[in-house]
Design brief:
Strand order of the largest sheet: 2-5-4-1-3
Number of domains: 1
CATH architecture: 3-Layer(aba) Sandwich
Structural class: alpha/beta
Largest sheet: 5 strands, mixed
Helix content: 10-25%
Radius of gyration: 14 Å
CATH superfamily: Uncharacterised protein PF08960, DUF1874
Number of helices: 3
Shape: globular
Number of strands: 5
CATH class: Alpha Beta
Distance between the termini: 13 Å
Amino acid sequence: MIYILNSLIVPVNFDKYPEARIRLNKISLEGAKVILENNKFISAVGHEGSAQLLSRLLGIPIQVNRISVYFEKGDIGIHFFLKQRLPEGKILSDEELSKLEFWIVRSEVL
């Protein structure tokens, strides 16, 4: 399964897999588009501003979906990762988020 998330957390199910190897690599927005546009994916983006920004940047609808997910072996994550920590309780709009630096990271549970 492919997931899109608004954090760099890779939620592995440690009840099922007490040990996991995870490959992380920074990818471009174009690379993320290729992975997401031709495949089914589940959004685990829990913030409206992040979902709006990602929808605009990727050119595909990203739904707000505050769910818990647990990766299995072979699952891939596309992570929107802000390069700075926000103040506690701060919620940013799409416009505010677009002014911050971020990485797009691909994860895979090996």
